[in-house]
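dude i think i finally got it to work??
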Amino acid sequence: MLQECGGKASNLGELTGLKLNVPNGFCIVAEAFFNYLRSNRLEEQILNISRDIDYEDFQDLEQKTSAIRSLIENAGMPSEVEEEITENYQSLQKDKLVPFVAVRSSVAVKDTDISSFPGMMDTYHYVRGKSEVIKNVKRCWASVWSARATFARQKKGIEHAKAIIAPVIQLMVDSEFAGVVFTINPVSNAREEIIIESNWGLGESVVSGKTVSDLYIIGKGLLNIKEKRIARKEKAFVKAEGSGGTWVEVEPGKVNKPTLTDEQVRELCRIALAIEEHYGCPQDIEWAYKRGVFYMLQARKANIITE
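look at this
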């Protein structure tokens, strides 16, 4: 379902089918975005702006992609789409509590097997209330035209009109710690090693590259921990007051404390290996941990360095 739901949502569906812990949610299929552009007559306006971008001039790239994002964010949501989003969002509610969700990009490229642009689209954390969900779906759609995503498509020779985005609305995991796990060493390409990076708070602390994180190197065979590098973790990305996320100072007692116990390392490895076995190739997995449970937030084929 890559062409309907993008890579992230499609893989989350598969992980759910594997009976792994995946936060509940739903996907706004790609056709909703194209319908949104058509119903607001944005396609020609976007084409006219994008065809004049000077990719050698960063200021021009940023200015024109910003204009496109503004068009997308400020257009009107078709009533039937808004009603479906609202209905599905409300179905996530439990115990009469209005839920916090993440609005996450799920992408692909029409008529290709490309199913991810790591770091190219945006995610919005701790979104609450139907009007905020609608607003952030529009922001997620608009992120197709971030300067970095637009430049990346141009560099790869991908037509902008072929970009697919299908936002995922997913219950927030207010994680104690989170990170990534690779079922291959992404530096050495050693297939017999698993690499885990972990930090306090949300996984943004790891994937953003703004902080240093704990690093664990594990042997696949016996799940023996070959190396631990416990970082001085001074910043974490957590829930802000009200809604949204924010960077905070880590409590002094946790700055040099390992995020994962040895048994948690091995448990996470077992989950990662089950995912690798399912897909039949090395995986790049995002995860979060809360109250004794590992949640899988994303899985995709790991990038392998070739000579």
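The first strand starts at residue 25 and ends at 27.
im so relieved honestly
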